[in-house]
Amino acid sequence: MEKKKKLDSKEGQRLLKQMILIRRFEEKSAEEYTKSQIRGFLHLYSGEEAVAVGVIQALTEADNILCTYREHGHALARGVDPKAIMAEMYGKQEGCSKGRGGSMHLFEATKNFFGGNAIVSGHLPLSVGMALAAKKQKKNNVTCCFFGEGAAAEGEFHESMNLAALWQVPTLFVCENNQYAMGTAIKLTHSVQQLEKKGPAYGIESAAVDGMDLLAVMEAADKAVKMIKEKGKPYFLVCNTYRFRAHSMFDAELYREKSEVEEWKKKDPIPKFQEFLLKGKLITAKKITEIEKAVDAQIQEAIEFAENGTWEDNENLIRFVYSDTESI
Amino acid sequence: MSEMIKITYREAIKQAIRDVMQNDERVFLMGEDVGNYGGAFAVSKGLLKEFGSDRIMDVPLSESGFTGAGIGAALAGMRPIVEVMTVNFSLLAMDQIVNNASTLLHMSGGQLNVPLVIRMGCGIGRQLAAQHSHSWEPFFAHVPGLIVLSVGTHEDARGMLISAMQSLDPVILFEYTFMLNLEKEIPADSGTVEIKKAKVLREGNDISLITYGAGVYKCLEAAEVLGQEGIEVEVIDLRVLRPMDEETFLTSVKKTHRALVVEEAWKSVSISSEVVSRIMEKAFFDLDAPVERLCGVEVPIPYPKHLEDASIPQVSDILEKVNKMLKP
Ligand SMILES: Cc1ncc(C[n+]2csc(CCOP(=O)(O)OP(=O)(O)O)c2C)c(N)n1
Ligand SMILES: [Mg+2]
Question: In the 8-state DSSP scheme, what is residue B61?
Fold first, then answer.
């Protein structure tokens, strides 16, 4: 934890709370999955919290966010109501996507949170287009697009990088390099594994950062967003990180050693940031316990909200296929 | 009659892959997570160890790239099996399949063959929501130059791949993931199967149920129930969606004088559209009642279980429809 951003205790505690909320929310989600309350695919973000929290704190509410199917953490960091997220995963009408999307498709347009895309790399071109629109409309907002290192092998990644640079639009590409695409290690998917080297080929300023270190991510993201807002150009930020849990709930994890996971767990971003706050007297141990309790209560509330939610009538099956059937 | 063995759909496919790999060294399997992960659905589990990484190739998320590479390898004398993890991702490879695989023979005036098999997992029913629940059989069946096979039974799971590998033309093989764990009996000596013709799976005189893929076991189940009520249903598995074998279902319709076509794909411009058209063109005067269809409701598949179920034909829908058609 070299880099010391000037953090006041209020902001430090807010960010710590976000990371703890994400971690516990994911643990609870896994539990609800085993109880069959949540179904379909469920991809958890545990271990990668510093990336979403560190990047999103650098954005303003006017900045757009697009994510993959592993997006609960980003939604929480953006301030989407945990109750609406949990209800979505339960498939209830009170969910942030009216129950239609589930875990992989969280949307909250009022918060400029644009999902939740389950086709790997499918949202990258969208992020370029949203930034292009901002440029045409002379708005000064950034569009931030999160994706995995696996996605960076798709043609859409390369096309999007080229387009964003060619058109000079304000996109922040954030690659969450968690070392694996499902069970395939990065060394089997990329000829050049320092992904940040791919940006300059398109004329995009790029950087790599330790994604297990919240302060480092914050500093890198602050710098990137500042550059984008000043120059109106895209930026490519690679966050090297690790997922502590399986790819999804169907994954037997045959492709990695338990010891490797244990090694990475030593770099857990949450205790690391806690320690930083404690050392700097920005928080007390008592306050941490309070935060944990508050988070647990918040999650319990989300579960109850989801449980009490309502199922949509079969009669409404074909809602939201065309805009004229009914608007929200 | 030969001895019967119990086998899962997954194991049947796996044995077929193993057979073709053992019998022809030009064969190799490539796809996302086929190796170290053991196959997204554990179909190829253990094969990496058995055949090595030259023949069981993990590939990056680059559907267009590796499918195109499969076509190239086929042109140059290999016999690749390309696994597109699920049909949902085949859209990224569509250009290669439609503009290269299906056209090269014709454009080259008969000089170039593309002996390639592309396997894809498909099917609805696991609450995977709109982007992971596509039924693209009709898309592919639209394209001359492709052979499109739908693996609706365990015998075909064991045999279709082996037969497809003998084809000089590109074959698309649809495998239904919700059946993977399902156990059925097949002859112990199952091997190659006919891949030019549809198949009558159950004989009956009262009505023809024409279906494929995910509809096959549903129709057989419905036929069983109806049989107990004294209604004799003939069940036809189309199997070969292109080039379509019309003779089998026309013969059946001429015998039963009634037809119901069942499929999970969206109704408009579907496989059933084609089947019904051919019945109109060639067996109209043999009909005692209008031909009917039970198809997917035209909605992107929603996440909640009850809405997902309501989106596709269920056994109860088939029973109700047949009863209505026979006892108006
Ligand atoms: C185009 C496409 N191909 C394949 C898949 C299946 N799939 C889902 S996630 C995934 C791995 C993606 O890895 P990465 O981009 O590194 O993101 P991570 O899951 O590690 O966050 C795969 C292969 C998909 N959803 N979309
Ligand atoms: Mg990854």
Answer: S
